[in-house]
Design brief:
Blueprint: H1 3-20, H2 24-34, H3 51-67, H4 79-99
Helix pairs in contact: 1-4, 2-3
C-alpha cells in the first residue's frame, strides 16, 4: 500500500472516530505522539505528545464517555458539540499530515 493511500485511510479513520466521540481521536493521536508512533517534533502540534497533554486528554475522553450516559447532557448533534467534533477531527488530521511531512 502506498504511503499516500495509507495516510488518506488513516485520516479518514480518525475523522470517523472524531465524529463518534470528540475526545477519543485526540486521545489516540496524543498517545501515538507520546509513544513516538507519530513524529510531531518541531511542529505546532508537538504539545500533543507531552505527558501532560496525554493524561489530560485521556481523562477528558473518559469523562466524555461517562457524561454521554447522563440524562441532562444535550444531544451531540446540537451545533456546539458538532463544531467541537469537526475541530477535533481537523486537529487530528493535521497531526497525521504533519507526521507524514505533508504540510508545514
Amino acid at each position: 500500500m502506498s504511503s499516500d493511500l495509507a495516510l488518506a485511510l488513516s485520516a479518514f479513520a480518525i475523522g470517523i472516530v472524531a465524529g463518534l466521540r470528540s475526545m477519543t481521536a485526540p486521545a489516540a493521536v496524543s498517545w501515538a505522539a507520546h509513544l513516538h508512533r507519530l513524529d510531531l517534533r518541531d511542529s505546532r502540534l508537538a504539545w500533543l505528545g507531552s505527558a501532560i497533554a496525554v493524561y489530560t486528554i485521556s481523562v477528558l475522553g473518559l469523562g466524555e464517555l461517562i457524561a454521554d450516559k447522563l440524562p441532562f447532557v444535550p444531544n451531540r448533534t446540537t451545533p456546539l458539540p458538532m463544531v467541537f467534533r469537526v475541530l477535533s477531527g481537523a486537529i487530528c488530521g493535521a497531526a497525521l499530515c504533519l507526521s507524514a511531512n505533508r504540510i508545514l
